[in-house]
Amino acid sequence: MKLELTVNFGGDWILKHRNDDILPIDRTVAILCGLFPTAKIVDTSFVSATIAADTELDESGATAAVNGKLVDEYGSALDDSGVAVTARILTDEQFDVIGGEASTGESAATVAFGMSQAQESERAETQSEPHPVPHGGAYSRFFGNGQDAERADGESKRSSVDEILGEVDRLAGSSEFKALCHEIAEVAPVLIKNKTTDAFVSRCYLFVVNDGCGLSDDLALLARLIDATGIKKMATARPVVECALGPAKEDDEPFESVVRMLKMAEMSAAGQILSIDISEWLNSTDSRYFKNFLKQLSKQSMMIPVFNVPYVDKYVQDRLYRSLNDILFVRSVVVPPYTRDELEQYAERTFAHYGYTLTKAAWQAFFARIDDERADGRFYGLDTVVKVVKELVYAKQLYDVKHKNQTDAEARRINGKAAEPICAGIDTSEYGVQSLKRLVGSERIEQRVNEIVAQIELAVKSGKERPCIHMQFVGNPGTGKTTVARIVGKILKERGILSVGNFFEHSGRDFCGRYIGETAPKTSGMCRDAYGSVMFIDEAYSLYRGDGNDRDFGREALDTLIAEMENHRSDFVVIMAGYTDDMKKMTEGNAGLASRMPYTVEFPNFDKEQLFEIFKSMSSKFDCDADMYADAQNYFNAIPDDVLASKEFSNARFVRNLFERTWAKASMRCQLNGLSKVVMTKNDFTSAINDGEFKFDTKKKNRIGFGVAAE
């Protein structure tokens, strides 16, 4: 009898088992293939598996047999699985059109880690190994003469290699990876001819690469290339397995899951690349536990290990390479962070994939968004580029809905108007001086900034060596340091002093790496992103602890920053900001830093009237009842002087928090009352200031923002 059998599990139960060494569906496929020697896999998903089989069992007998095996496998853990096994009879015609057979008793590990043994057998019969036959292109000098009968298979195989190398060569950057792939393609015929492929298979790799720089794509291409050259058959279902070692500690536990994968992989008929993130062990690779792990890796033959760590200093790369190479045959591949040109090249190809080109204005909008994504130091390379490309492609679709009378050429070209939505919230205006004038209480700051800009302009126009134009902004939180830093970038761009004029905001400890050797390249990369622009470092003093601790990454970050500030002084502005006393301590402790920040701008606290004016400025853009302002003015006038003078009071930031709380109260009230328009009222303001962080007691002088006042 020919049957179609389907096993379905509940989604919640599957999620509970998502971290199993072998996923439930993979185990189920192995069980089905073991029960039914003629099994053909019809379909699999995260929660279900379907096979077709020619069996002596009827529908009820087949479902009972499957249920029994599942109980044997999972026991009581199956009770809440929601498993359902169903069967239906197939006609001969239906059965015949279903794909290839799986072998009897196929192991779960084989199903989980690669193609079935039957698929491997079928593949071996239909795909010949490469033969030494003449062929044009890059491989002709590696192949001798052969029989005509061998030519077709050999050319087909090498054509596949050519296609893969074409994909590799089109990658952005990755010069060392490209060189590796071409090396493999060149040496493969020699390895096969001399039957020395085991020398290649025993080699492992060390990839030095940051997140978002294409590691997963590179490894997928590497697996395809190894398979296509005939050096080693690689699994088609899952050619690359990625995992990470847990935090370094003095036992074998972090390695257990990887070792289990190695043991199961040995049961597979096809090879795999095992990508292991060893970042947590970057400084512990000489421990006996890690060395024992490497020894176990050296004894297996089915997986090709690829160790990966973030982009680190050259001396750390060399140390890590030597440590791995003590036991394993290692090839190092370094993938530096992408340059702007490489990102543009990748973006252009991705847009072309969707069939679009961009106007100059659209490219400006695209990179304004990319720069905004990079501004906080958390940028994920190609992953972020692809995300922004898709956002822009979708924005183009919305634009097309409203502009239906376009020519075919216009429809395939993204213009600046279509790209505007992806820049929403990014301030692209260039009226820096006017922006500075509009700030509440900015008279002294405006005067000081204008003096600094005039000094810089004079030095530039004099034709002498360009001066350092880095600055320090000192003052309490919320006094406008970040806002003014943005405006300074605009002004310097308008005056032709900065070529780009973007704004990159970081906190001091953002520059510190997680591991020894990561800090300097990370800091250099963040500076490189900001060339031609302003880099604003809040709480910069956190980089300097003054305790002489040579292992403090802050000291290394600060040294790298100073070098960048000196080497790129003509088109790069670093503005360090923080409390006055802490910034003074930092500059006094580092003479090199003090000499490279010749300009200081002091930001005084706002007085009560200025705080009220800031609140009015924020709320004036929304609908408000006039009587709310009288209460607001009384509230700010009642703030105790010692609160305003305290180091912890956040000035304009406090005002913004109060405004947003008032707006939230008004929005909630209007929603509950079914009103379509939100209007802030006196009662909304009263409700907001009664929340704990906005209450203060003038008699007991409870500090504003430090909890609920005592009753």
Please characterize this protein's 3D structure:
By secondary structure, this protein is of the alpha/beta class. 49% of the residues lie in helices and 12% in strands. Strands 6-7-8-5-9 form a five-stranded parallel beta sheet, sandwiched between helices. A five-stranded parallel beta sheet has the order 13-14-15-12-16. Helix 8 (175-193) runs parallel beside helix 10 and helix 29 (651-672) packs across helix 30 (682-689). The longest helix has 22 residues, at 148-169. The chain starts with a strand and ends in a 22-residue tail after the last helix. Residues 100-155 and 700-711 have low confidence and may be disordered.
Indicate the overall shape.
globular
Low-confidence runs of at least 5 consecutive residues: 100-155, 700-711
The overall strand count is 16
Task: Give the helix level as a range of percent.
Answer: 40-55%
Per the CATH scheme, the topology name of the largest domain is Rossmann fold
The CATH C-level name of the largest domain is: Alpha Beta
The number of helical segments is 30
Strand content: 5-15%
CATH architecture of the largest domain: 3-Layer(aba) Sandwich
How far is the first residue's CA from the last residue's CA?
82 Å
CATH superfamily of the largest domain: P-loop containing nucleotide triphosphate hydrolases
Count of distinct structural domains: 5
Strand order of the largest sheet: 6-7-8-5-9
Mean pLDDT: 81
Radius of gyration: 33 Å
Q: For the report, how would you describe the main beta sheet?
A: 5 strands, parallel
